């Protein structure tokens, strides 16, 4: 089986929830987390998030998780802010762009802006994403996202198993 790492940034918890769900659906998938170096709260925090997106800022962040290059693919799970990629995910992709394997992009949003986020990630890494999908916050919170997130995970795993047969062979159980 291919090695896949899910890396999420979440301000209000929805993306973390989806990232954990995907890891629980796919055996062996691991989790990494991006956090803002300086916590944001309340109305001023909200406007700081909007400003990040409008001005394409890259706020300081912390990454806690395995080294992405040790995987065949990473799944980036991020909210949409002001019709764009959330600032901390922009910072992460910019900083780590030379150390990222195949990249899949999942956006979680109220309803609009996911295509801009995919385009921005692809521009930052200089290549197309392996797969991308978008969920509404409501779909994640109600549990409705579960079927689509499993299908997304299955499709990505199959794609990576096909592209990286050496990992597949190394991690699969051998003959008895
Ligand atoms: C500052 C800010 C800007 C947002 N802008 C958009 C937007 O342009 N389009 C949209 O569909 N949702 C927008 N949302 C909604 C979030 O994308 C949505 O609530 C998402 O699930 C939040 O993820 P999180 O709980 O992991 O932080 C915005 C939320 C915030 C906080």
Number of domains: 1
Number of strands: 7
CATH superfamily: Flavodoxin domain
Query: CATH fold name, please?
Result: Rossmann fold
| Derived structural class | alpha/beta
- Give the CA-CA distance, first to last residue: 18 Å
Computed CA radius of gyration, to the nearest angstrom: 16 Å
Give the CATH level 1 class.
Answer: Alpha Beta
**How would a crystallographer describe the biggest sheet?**
7 strands, mixed
The CATH architecture would be 3-Layer(aba) Sandwich
Strand content: 15-25%
What fraction, in percent, of the residue positions are helical? Answer: 40-55%
Q: Which molecules are bound besides the chains?
A: flavin mononucleotide
Shape: globular
| Strand/helix succession | EHEHEEEHEHEHHH
What value does the average pLDDT take? 95
Low-confidence runs: none
Number of distinct helices: 7
